[in-house]
Amino acid sequence: MNDAPVIQTHGLTRYYGAKAVVQDLNLEIPRGSVFAFLGRNGSGKTTTIRMLLGLLAPTRGGGRVLGCDIRALTPDVRARIGYLTEEHRLYDWMKVKEIGEFQAAFYPRWHPKIFSGVIGHFGLRPEARVKELSRGQRAGLALALTLAPDPELLILDDPALGLDPVARRSLVESMIYLTRRSDRTIFFSSHNLGDVERVADQIAVLDYSVLRVCCSLETFRASVQEVLLRFAGAPPPLPPIPGLLQAFRTAHELRVTCVHYNRETEAALRKLSPLSLELPPLGLEDAFISYLGERGEKSFILADAEEEP
Amino acid sequence: MNLNVVISTGSTTPIYKQIADQVKLAVATGRLAVADQLPSVRTLAESLVLNPNTVARAYADLARDGVLESRPGRGVFIIQKRRVFAREEGRRRLEPLLDALLGEAMAMDFTPEELLAAVAKKISQWKPEKGAE
Question: Is residue B129 part of a domain?
């Protein structure tokens, strides 16, 4: 099989007026991966996806999708990409099976079995009217329409948005099912880190339009470390620590999160002569929040007003 | 075969390690015996709704630790555990686990005697592996 990356961008940049929404994005997505695209709201994920699909012209830089320049995607390349938008736009006046038949006419490679399989998985009746469907059912129908042409590359823009836990699980199951074909690639954006932990093998993190992370899930987890320091009295002021993300102080403790924790970091922290230094494990969600939350040193200040009168 | 893996996302333990830990526990408590077959990577991934690479990573770690063996074309099987760590290395790895246990037990006001009794009871529930000792 072809080993070239399915998606590759170099210096991909988009401005809206004077504001850079996506800045110098260098992304490489290997074939066969399940790639999660993370970042806070407004960090430029949808803009990136729209540029990858040729729906929005980059201000600078460029990229290739399935080997084709994103500024000149041909219809046959587009037919090999499945794209699920955030909004699940559907024809409300059609029935489920009608919308399937209608869409089939646009694709040379359409699999009615995949379509009926996915709508069955989401508990949809073929005779149901689209306008009567719940949000989860609409998502299922939109996914069925996206999967039926058996796309080589599946791009999902926040597919779990607004779904209940049952519909979300069906969605994740469909994604896992798709990995049966090892040459199929999934690129999806999400805010649900539980889902990401289940299905993704690679992640990229956009932070205020700039790509900060692009690696395997485990590498990301392993590179964000929390350190808990205990002191007899109030913790001393923190010297400059390489890779510091956040510091949080209480009466006798200093909780520090940093990236690329190593001997050097530990030596710098030991200089504060703490009573103890512990490295508690960090979950994906906490690692992510430390990474993207406001940086710097924080503490709770208990104002006198909060004390008992 | 009696493998009942439960996965929790959002845990401080990575998912591949949750799987490996639970297989090890099942072997230690006799729910899985030598020569028992485990589900394939694909089957377990689909039943647990996980990326197959995560399950493959867990199986690779278990194979490295001498718990299971993948026989091409036949499947994945529990094998007679060989000692993978030298005793010294084993002790070094045991140390932090003991510290955690003692810390928790002290916080819950267990006396040393109570703790020893609890540990002894747990050990008595283990089924020794066939052929061991």
Answer: no
